[in-house]
Structure formats: C-alpha cells, structure tokens
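hey so u asked for the seq, here:
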Amino acid sequence: LRAGGALTAGNTVTGRGGAVIEPVAVGTSLGIAGGTGSLQISQATLDRFAGIASLTLGRSDGSGAVDVGNLVLPTTLTLRSSSGTVTFGGTVDSATGFAHGLTVETAALTTFAGSVGGTNALGSLSVAHAAQVDAASVRTSGTQHYAGALTFGADSELHAPALLLDAGLAAGAHDVGLFTNSLGLAGSVSGTGSAGLASFAANGSIALAGAAGTLELSQSLLHQFAGLSLLRIGRADGTAAITASALTLATDTTLHNGSGNVTLGTVAGNGHALAVEAAGTTRFGGAVSGVSTLST
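ran it, structure tokens below
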C-alpha cells in the first residue's frame, strides 16, 4: 500500500501473509501512533492489521524521518527507512495477550525515549544500526539485538533472555542494568557510570570466570567493563547462587544476592574494592589478594 497523506483502514485486515505501507515519495516523513510526520498512520489504523502475520511501515530507500508516539504493536512490526531517523517518543508495548516483535531498519539513529514493554513485554527487539536508549527500561520475552553502537542517555535497564550487543555499549555517566541469561557483547564498553549484570529471572544462578550457571560471565567479558566506576553483579531479589572459581576484579565490584549463597574461590583484586551483599552464606574457598577494601 502506498499513501501520501493520512492512511485510514475502515475494516479489519486479515490473512496469513504480511502487509507493507510506505509513502509515495522517498523523502516523506512518517508519523505513527500520534507521532509527527507527513504520512499519518494512527493507532486505530494499525489495529486493523492485527489479523495478519506481519506489518512493515516505511520505505527501504526512504530518507524521511519516522516519528512514533505511544505505540501498541498489533502484530509483528518492522519500521524502515534508508537514511531517516526513527524516534520512539512515547511508550512501546505489545498488544495485550501477545508478545509481538519489533524490528527497526535504518542506517540513521534509532532513539527510544519512553519505556519499552513496560505494560506488555515485546516478543523481541532488533535494531539494525546505532541506537540510543533514554527509556527507564526495555523489556522483551525474547532476544534483544542491537547491531550498531548502543548509547544510554539516562539510567536504564534492559531485560531479555538473550542480549546481543554487536558494537559495544556507551553508558556515559549513567547506571545501566543488563538482566539476561545470555550476554553477547562485542566492542568496547565506555563511560564513567556503573553497570549491573544479572540473570533474567530471580531464580537464575550466576557463574563468574569459568564457573557454570544460568548466566555465565567469562573473565574476558568482565574485563570489558574495566573503564566503569562500579560493576554490580547479581540482583537484590536473587534466590540462586553466585559462584566463581578464580575471579580477577576489573573494577570496583559488588556481588549482591537476596537469599542465594555467594561462593568464591581465589580473588585477585588488582587494587579494586570488593563488596558482597547477600542474605545467604558467603564463602571464600581460596586466597583473596590485591583487594583495596573487602566488605561482606
């Protein structure tokens, strides 16, 4: 479907396949669900497409910006432009009772200003190039994949069973939390703020530096956070164990757990501080050396 001004659908669209809605002109901007743009597609119009498998909005060769208000995904949704920015100025949720996925395809910046999945988690989220997260949280029941550089403009948390960050993470001065059972992190981690690494669910165990658990964080991955002021590992409501056989601190580190135990082998501090905050039992099975301060 090609449209130039405002698109409305009077009846429900059904079918096993997908639909594409794109502007007639390459440079036309899109306003979706209350966003600003020359081609207007309202939430009511989007909801008419709930009966099809997927919906794509925008042109693959487009240069116009895509601006989104408060969006509820009626089905699996792709937003695309070749060189136009994509801005989610409001909240993004899946339709109630569903976990629809969202894909953003543009070579320009994709920005999330409002919470994503705060009411109903998305099924998945994929961003093809650079993204900025200004939202307090991004929640999906499936994978989050950021293929370009990921920048945080505010304190934020990403919640997903699997997190794929292909081009690093820029935290700035912010506090960033990554809640996942599988963290794939390529590229550098920069910033002066702090980061938290935790399992996706409270009952997931965390294994450090070669140990086995639900969320396994290798020593090399931990070292990628060396430039930050603090690395927090675990969650305050955690019920499973945090374990490590031979751990080397990359920066000041806090291990925190709810009722779960913390079991460590040797710890090499490299001049950094280590704090353990857990209601369960904390055990050190080996030598602790080079730690500036140790608190339990």
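DSSP finds two helices and 35 strands in the chain. The two ends are 62 Å apart (CA to CA).
lmk if thats what u needed
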